[in-house]
Write a structure and sequence with these properties.
The complex is a heterodimer of chains A (648) and B (319). Chain A is an alpha/beta fold and 648 residues long. Helices cover 32% and strands 19% of the residues of chain A. In chain A, strands 12-11-17-10-18-19-9-20-21-22 form a 10-stranded mixed beta sheet. In chain A, a hairpin with a 2-residue loop joins β15 and β16. In chain A, α9 (329-345) packs antiparallel against α10 (356-367). The longest helix of chain A has 21 residues, at 406-426. In chain B, the strands form 4 sheets. In chain B, strands 1, 5, 6, 7, 8, 9, 10, 11, 12, 16 and 17 form an 11-stranded mixed beta sheet that branches. A two-stranded parallel ribbon of chain B has the order 2-13. In chain B, β5 and β6 form a beta hairpin. The chains are: A alpha/beta (648), B alpha+beta (319).
């Protein structure tokens, strides 16, 4: 028989309600803030003894002293004398708990007097309503961590239907930087999600945007775990190993031939793919790169005209000097030059209703996109993209945008998410659900500032993504500075160690002072969880991710330095085909110019054929081989006489 | 307001008038029935004249248990001026475990509740209970066995005295149980001379905080009033009258400078025995040890041991 650890108390000044109650415990009881307890009522209601489950939100301790002065008097003003006192003063540990659940749920009454017990594992399941989704055969539980109090170790599960959809969706993480909260928690949660997402709910993949440092660059490499971590993995039945199917994408550096990522070490190049886009891919999202002043109605109309009538099709006009097929930024620049020359020659102010000033403005804005997003946007190169349509179940696609300019980051984010959305709408992405992880949400969806394309997109995912299977896992340091509709639509919220200033924001007023204090002092590996099934926040402990940390990865696999064109090609091809040699690459490149080589390389990597070298050669433009014909015989000039300079 | 008691009375005496006041008639916890302050002489058991003795040595924490009782009385109603009092008494021994107080397991706390009413004046002689509530008949003076005066104040005084005696009985019962089962020193709040068994026990130490009767006259009174902190008077034997003989002395627990003459003054009672001077010094060291922690916020903190305050608080919460 379990021993009671406390008794419910209520006074007129501090009464119990249906949602809160108070209890006292012995001084040495294992109760603390966040502990889940069970109250057994003293008398039956409707023939049933009520059981009330609550989580401790506040604790008080006091003695029978009326003023601190009494204690001073008690010990003659000397703290040393306190130890000689014949006894300790009467002292109380008084706790307040928020009700998690009442069984039976009707009639909903104030919490009755009764004994208080530490919740056991089965009590935790009932208290958090996890019994509703942990049935055999229809188990949709995703372990998020272990609740620990006293001797109780209970796995806390999120409901997949409320984490990934369709009932609710999205997850938001808040925590200060550098305390292994946000990135670690997401890595752990993705591992858990991949291990436990029910087959019946379909396939799932993750797209992670690495926005800073090497955080997500080594997800496929094993990390350091200790015994307590392994015990947690075992308890939650999640394999303690790194992600098995990880694909990295990164654009080229603005200058040079190396990929712009901290995962550029040659030993890790096998699953890193360049991310390069051309004119068509970019123009569709020109709005991302153009500010509000740029895109007035006139400019918008011209861009629309170019997209519809100019790109990727023969374009002729009486005013132009020739027919154009615009397939690259270079082609577009030629087209603009021709249009403007025609206007100047004809002394016209407008062409096809577009004013010359508008044409100049749009030309100016569009033509420098390839400069602003150098490395990502190619002037004339082919496209290398995420495998939309061929996403694999339980695969992780990491897009490294950490070293890119803000414009390029925005463009990548906007386009990838839009493409994911398009494919999910058409049900042809390759998987049924995609988790998109975005860190630094303060930056992408701030609560104030201009209404950017990226913010609109995040709002759209947050509000409608769950119906499509597009799930947003977002993280930020300051939740109060993120757009309310983004965090508000996150069904699940996770909090790590919080900054005291952030906790002073009005949004945290719903938490008790003690809970806020606990949040401000959380250890590494502890989280506070809010989930639709949990009526109150719950504290859990999670293991270190079983993947190599960014810092360790950067030490073990230092970033590759700037390399020659030949070396860059050799490394990239060798990752696909180990038979490739440096000599063969050098011979193939020969005198080809840089643009041709990079285009061929990108096409080869995209095709992933068995013979990478042969593919690469075939993608290089053919060079005209001139046959060395013998020079025609020319008549030998007659020598001039030494004394006749005119040769007469 | 004791609704159940009122219902019970009204079933017996429908014409009784309810007293609306919520204030208790008596809310003191010791010395329920007070007597007029007076001075009495006592026989010296130590030396030729009463004098002050400095307690040598450090205070010693020796008391294992603390005994106290509480009483509460309230006039519920009256019938043509005859009061009917709802009285409850409780007593408990609290023992010290790891420097904290818990209830002694040797004998459960005693809690009792009775209706104190002069049955002869209310015309319902012979009743022992009303609807399960026990009745204490206060028709007759306990000492003189005469019918009590019809004066409402006299009736009230007799009833309150009876409540006080019930409290003493409860305390005595527990003290006797302790003295049978436990040889460790017991701090008794009040005197021990009311029970021959307790008065004869080596383990019961009575500590009296109120001094309605001062057992010192003449120069002896000057000595008592002038005791300094940590000093005791010579041992004497209070007149026993109808009580058991005990040895007693005064002890000053706290420095009285800036306070009234009784500040920190207690009188201690122990069983008679040999070498009473040594015994007085020894027990004085024990009692001095109990002056910390201070029993604040109780108004009698200068004379009250914290263990006794704890006992009172405990009884208030259960009685």
């Amino acid at each position: 028989m379990r021993m009671a650890l406390g008794r419910v108390v209520a006074t007129e000044r501090r009464p119990n309600t249906p949602h809160e109650f108070h209890f006292w415990t012995a001084l040495d009881s294992p109760v603390g803030i966040g502990t889940i307890v069970r109250v057994d009522g003293n008398r039956p209601v409707d023939g049933r003894i009520p059981h009330i489950y609550g989580v401790v939100t506040e604790g008080l301790s006091y003695t029978d002293l009326l003023t601190p002065m009494h204690d001073v008097l008690s010990h003659d003003g000397s703290p040393e004398r306190a130890g000689f006192a014949s006894a300790e003063r009467a002292e109380i540990r008084l706790y307040s708990a928020a009700v998690l659940r009442q069984v039976p749920e009707e009639p909903l009454q104030p919490v009755p007097m009764g004994d208080v017990f530490l919740a056991q594992e089965e009590d935790v399941n009932v208290a958090l309503r996890m019994d509703g989704y942990l049935h055999d055969g229809s188990n949709t539980g995703i372990p998020i961590g272990v609740y620990r109090a006293g001797g109780t170790d209970a796995t806390i599960y999120l409901d997949a239907d409320f984490l990934v959809g369709p009932e609710a969706a999205h997850l938001n993480i808040t925590g200060v930087s550098g305390l292994a909260t946000k990135t670690s928690a997401v890595e752990w949660l993705l591992a858990s999600l991949f291990a436990h997402f029910p087959e019946s709910r379909g396939s799932i993949a993750a797209v992670c945007f690495n926005v800073k440092g090497p955080d997500l660059c080594f997800l496929d490499l094993p990390g350091k775990l200790d015994d307590s971590d392994r015990a947690l993995y075992e308890k939650m039945d999640v394999p303690a190993r790194p992600f098995e199917n990880v694909n990295y994408f990164a654009p080229y550096a603005a200058r040079g031939y190396a990929l712009n990522t901290l995962r550029s070490n040659e030993a890790l190049a096998h699953n890193v793919t360049p991310l390069t886009w051309g004119l068509r891919e970019v123009l569709q999202y020109a709005e991302v790169l153009l500010n509000r002043d740029d895109i007035d109605a006139k400019a918008d109309a011209l861009i629309d005209f170019i997209t519809r009538s100019v790109i990727d099709q023969p374009f002729t006009d009486a005013m132009l000097t020739r027919s154009h097929v615009v397939q690259s930024f270079a082609d577009l620049e030629d087209w603009f030059k021709d249009v403007l020359r025609g206007l100047e020659n004809g002394n016209k102010e407008s062409w096809r209703t577009h004013h010359v000033a508008t044409i100049r403005k749009v030309r100016n804005r569009l033509s420098n996109i390839s400069v602003r997003c150098a490395g990502l946007v190619t002037d004339s190169g082919p496209v290398s993209d995420l495998p939309f349509g061929e996403f694999e179940d339980r695969a992780t696609y990491v897009v490294d945008v950490a070293n890119l300019e803000e414009d390029a980051q925005d463009l990548i984010f906007a386009r990838i998410v839009s493409k994911l959305r398009e494919h999910l709408e058409r049900r042809d992405l390759g998987v049924k659900h995609v988790v998109v992880f975005v860190d630094e949400l303060n930056k992408y969806a701030p609560s104030d500032g201009p209404d950017t394309y990226v913010r609109k997109m995040l709002l759209d995912i947050a509000e409608r993504g769950r119906y499509l299977g597009l799930v947003l896992f977002s993280a930020q340091q300051f939740r109060s500075q993120v757009h309310k509709r983004v965090v508000g639509n996150s069904g699940t919220s996770v909090f790590g160690r919080m900054d005291a200033d952030e906790l002073a924001a009005p949004g945290y007023a719903v938490l008790s002072p003690a809970t806020r204090t606990k949040l401000a002092t959380l250890e590494k590996g502890q989280l506070m969880i809010r989930h639709p099934h949990f009526t109150q926040p719950i504290f859990v402990r999670f293991p270190r991710p079983a993947v190599m940390t960014g810092r360790m990865g950067a030490e073990q696999f230092p970033q590759g330095g700037e390399v020659s064109l030949e070396t860059a090609v050799y490394r990239s091809l060798r990752a696909q085909d180990s038979s490739v040699t440096m000599q063969a690459v050098e011979d193939a490149i020969g005198l080809h110019d840089e643009g041709d080589v990079l285009r061929a390389l990108t096409l080869t990597l995209k095709e992933r054929s068995g013979d990478a070298m042969a593919t690469f050669r075939s993608r290089l433009p053919r060079r005209v081989t001139q046959s060395l014909k013998p020079r025609p015989q020319t008549a030998v000039l007659r020598g001039t006489p030494g004394d006749d300079p005119y040769g007469i | 307001m004791s609704i159940d008691a009122l219902r019970a009375i009204q079933s017996l005496l429908p014409d009784a008038e309810i007293v609306q006041s919520d204030a208790p008639t008596d809310d003191s916890y010791a010395g329920a029935y007070s007597e007029a302050p007076h001075i009495a002489s006592a026989d010296l058991l130590e030396g030729q004249r009463l004098r002050a003795h400095i307690i040598e040595g450090d205070p010693e924490i020796r008391f294992a248990g603390f005994l106290d009782g509480v009483q509460r009385a309230k006039i519920l109603c009256h019938r043509r001026g005859v009061p009917i009092i709802d009285g409850s008494v409780a007593a408990a021994i609290r023992i010290r475990v790891d420097r904290r107080y818990v209830t002694w397991g040797g004998s459960a706390p005693i809690i009792s509740r009775r209706l104190y009413m002069p049955l002869a004046l209310l015309g319902c002689e012979g009743r022992t209970e009303i609807e399960g509530i026990e009745i204490a008949d206060t028709s007759y003076n306990v000492r003189t066995k005469e019918l009590v005066s019809r004066h409402p104040a006299a009736l009230r005084a007799v009833a309150l005295e009876r409540v006080g005696r019930d409290r003493e009985d409860a305390e005595r019962s527990l003290a006797e149980a302790w003295c049978v089962d436990d040889a460790e020193p017991l701090f008794v709040d009040g005197g021990i001379s009311g029970s021959p068994r307790i008065a004869a026990s080596h383990c019961a130490i009575g500590v009296i905080k109120s001094h309605q009767t001062l057992f010192a006259d003449g120069d002896a009174l000057d000595v008592v009033m002038s005791l300094k902190c940590g000093e005791r008077s010579s041992v004497f034997a209070p007149p026993s009258h109808m009580r058991s003989p005990v040895a007693s002395w005064y002890l000053r627990l706290r420095d009285p400078r800036g306070h009234d003459a009784m500040f920190g003054l207690v009188r201690i009672e122990v069983t008679m025995g040999h070498d009473l001077a040594a015994r007085a010094n020894e027990v004085s060291r024990w009692v001095l040890a109990e002056s910390s922690p201070v029993a604040l916020p109780d108004s009698r903190w200068d004379r009250m041991a914290y263990g006794i305050r704890d006992c009172e608080q405990f009884l208030r919460s259960i009685a």
